[in-house]
Specification:
The chain is mainly β and about 325 residues long. About 10% of the residues lie in helices and about 40% in strands. The chain is globular. The termini are far apart.
């Protein structure tokens, strides 16, 4: 009798025990607002339409819980015309959803440390690729594997959100990881005194705190227009001029130099700007000749949100007296 009772008790215990389930997938969601132009239309297979000024991205990547191997992805982008005075799209825009598999590619012929995230690797005509800048930042690549260059309003950098939908504040780079274009060229050389002009818009809070510059509580974005100058004979860095939201009262001016090393990458090329008048320093990591990333005082990456990234894009510049025109063509890497 006791044996029967024991067996019944065991069966009852098994029947009420919760079933074992597999661990949940690791989920990462990246958001951004980027330009909508001929390059992005070709890249994303968008229909040809004049009613496309910007694209809002939401890219969710799923990983296997134990191996962290790439799994599936969900991509939603909404495109259309900007609603005047807001970061919204006129009449909500047009939404396109994509799903599929993604993979990670480590190393390229030009950069053994590059990490590429590729959507739909088995569909070459539809595949979309991103350079992993660090854990919290991805940057869209064109069909030739070069960093996409944005404009004065938006860039092609995607920013990680945390599970509550807030921007991640703990970006990191694996030690020794290199940030670069996947298709480097020779550095730009010219007799011009202009090294380059870079434009963009960023979120407010992080940069204003770093510079100790108060902004209103409802500040959503900061505009930036940076020109770097060089000695036309030696090509050595000389001065800079900075215009934008924080410099409406007085143009930002000072000196700049090229230094090595971010907090986590000793080989990173960093532009250090210093203004003696304002007693302020700014750091930019050179991704390639066309893209600069803002760094904080500790030379860590700053992470944006769904509207703006901490990225500056090279603007076309025609200096008086010079026939050298800077364009968005890719150049040297780190």
């Amino acid at each position: 009798m006791s044996i029967v009772v024991s067996i019944l008790s065991l069966l009852i215990g098994l029947s009420i025990s919760p079933p074992k389930t597999a661990p949940p997938f690791i989920v990462e969601t990246f958001v951004a607002t980027s330009p909508c132009d001929a390059s992005s239309n070709r890249q994303l297979k968008l229909p040809e339409t004049p009613d496309c000024e910007l694209i809002k991205w939401s890219l969710t990547l799923y990983r296997e819980p134990i191996t962290m191997a790439p799994g599936t992805y969900e991509l939603r982008f909404v495109y259309g015309l900007a609603e005047q005075g807001t970061e919204r799209l006129l009449q909500g825009g047009t939404t396109i959803d994509r799903k599929g598999k993604w993979t990670k590619i480590e190393g390229t012929r030009s950069n053994p440390n590059a990490v590429i995230y590729q959507l739909d690797p088995d569909k070459p005509s539809e595949s979309v690729a991103f350079l992993k800048i660090n854990h919290s930042l991805l940057h869209l690549l064109d069909r030739d594997g070069r960093l996409m260059v944005g404009n004065a309003g938006w860039s092609y950098t995607l920013n990680l959100t945390d599970p509550r939908g807030e921007p991640s504040v703990l970006p990191f780079v694996s030690r020794g990881e290199s940030i670069s274009s996947t298709r480097p060229r020779s550095p730009v050389t010219t007799a011009s005194s202009v090294f380059g002009s870079f434009v963009g818009r960023t979120p407010c809070a992080a940069i204003s705190r770093q510079l100790n510059r108060p902004v209103s509580a409802d500040c959503r974005k900061l505009k930036w227009d940076l020109t770097l100058y060089q000695n036309p004979r030696t090509l050595a860095p000389t001065g800079y001029k900075l215009n934008g939201t924080l410099y409406r009262d007085r143009l930002g001016e000072g000196t700049w130099r090229i230094v090595k090393g971010s907090r986590t990458n000793a080989d990173a090329v960093v532009y250090q700007l210093y203004s003696a008048k304002r007693q302020e320093t700014l750091y930019f990591l050179k991704a390639d000749d066309n893209i600069l990333f803002f760094l904080n005082r500790e030379r860590d990456f700053l992470v944006g949100d769904g509207d703006f990234s901490f990225t500056l894009n090279r603007a076309e510049t025609l200096e008086k007296g010079s026939n050298k025109r800077y364009s968005s063509a890719p150049s040297s890497s780190l």
